[in-house]
Amino acid sequence: MGADLSQIGILARREIEARILAPVIKEFARELGRERTLAIVEPIIISLAREAGSQLGKTVGGNSLDHFMKGFPMWTREDALTVQLLEQNPRKVSFNVTRCRYAEMYRELGIGDLGVLLSCNRDGALIQGFNPKIKFTRTQTIMEGAPFCDFRFEMKE
User: Fold this and answer.
1) Cβ atoms 128, 50 nearer than 8 A
2) Which of 36, 88, 118, 140 lies deepest, with the highest CB count within 10 Å?
């Protein structure tokens, strides 16, 4: 049985992970090439995110959009995200992230180029693991230079 990671904010977890993974990824990229390394690492991170989504459903007691929003404070803890909520009902949730301390942290660590791989890529997979009937759409991220991230969730029929 592992430690209770719920006591550690996700922002702090991502920083710990990044401080370990970034040097490993960079060394493998030096040996194998960046493209091949990322092709190996990305599915691992996505798989972990799917598992986390499934676990989130258990933690919050269900897998509806209302349940998802009950778990949302885990990602915003310690002001990790500044969020502008646009719409929230049982069928749709829409919000923009206007400040992302995850992106800031990766840039401060000098690994801004790995932020999408280590964080943003998890979002869609997390939702798949949480409830595959929820459609997730995002067209831009702060991590990639946009002024905000546009998160849209819709329960499929």
Assistant:
1) yes
2) 118
Is the separation of the CB atoms in 67 and 133 below 8 Å?
no
- Give me the pLDDT at residue 2, please: 66
| Per-residue tokens: 20 | 């370990």
Q: How many C-beta atoms surround the C-beta of residue 150 within 10 A?
A: 15
Burial of 75 (0-12, 13-18, 19+ CB in 10 A): middle
Residue numbers of the domain that contains 97: 5-155
* pLDDT tier, 8 (very low <50, low <70, confident <90, very high otherwise): confident
Q: Within 80-144, where are the H helices?
A: 101-108, 115, 122-130
pLDDT, tens digit, for every residue of 74-127?
889 999 999 999 999 999 999 999 999 999 999 999 999 999 999 999 999 999
How many CB atoms lie under 10 A from the CB of residue 87?
12
* Beta-sheet pairing, 134-137 with 149-155: antiparallel
How many angstroms separate the CA atoms of 15 and 155, rounded? 32
Q: CA angle, 155 as apex, 152 and 157 as ends, to 5°?
A: 140
User: What's the predicted TM-score (pTM) here?
Assistant: 0.91
Q: What is the CATH number of the domain that holds 128?
A: 3.30.1380
